[in-house]
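Practice problem: predict the structure.
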Amino acid sequence: MVIADEGKDEKKIDVLFYFQPYWRWNSDSMDFSISRSRTLITADLPEGFSCFVEIEIIPTVQLIKAQLEYQFGNQKIIVGQQSNSFKFYNPPLHERILVQYPLASLVPNFDDLGVTLLGSIGNVLNYRFSILNGKGPNYKDDNKDKDAVVFVKFSPSNWFSMASCWQGGYQEWTKDIEEKYYRSGQWLQGEIRPFFHLLIQPTWVKRNDMDKEGWFILGLLQISSRDQLVARYLKDINKEEELTLGAIFNFNKRMRFLPNIYFRKKLDDNYDIGIYLMAQINISNE
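Answer:
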């Protein structure tokens, strides 16, 4: 961590380098790769401002996020490249392989340019409203109509919460055809903690303009202060079914090991069995 004092204003810059070795086997293939490598930079600025930059290095070099934030009271304004509605509530990077991006299957898995107002009312209600470009990062804004996003999370108790999100906007068919269609989608997700060490998370998602929907249920069992067992059943928008069993082992604050096995029922009623072995390694300047 780098800290510079100038009078009463404290500036902090945190740099995190993240990479993810990955081994996969199923009945058809076997491969090893560095599936993802990114650099994340966070800087606290004076007067309630902060900024965040995320750069992908592997598999391709590209800017994932670049945003300026301003905090006032219980509210925050975010300007720049940021998550769309189907990424607000996804798990952290190191856990996403276990849920196979079920929300990202409904929209392109990219961040978007725009402005967001988010905040909270006590510990009960969290809200987020965004106006987004609707095209994704590094794209020219061909369409004049923006996407609107509404996100609400209601947490009436420590053992139960419910979150809902909707996103919609006009999209052009192609750059050559100026006709537009209205695309929208929403998801509804609950979090239930019947006891302290267990989390059950059912989620339903739908893409309205494609008339497709799916759902999944994720269970996390805390077996120690560092480690978890994971189970997830998914029925996706293509009507394929998949059961994933896995674990998250934390050797220390910089390294995690994520073994998991999946059983997938295909559309032709055949079955596929596969194994994922993945490690998450963080290197920071702290």
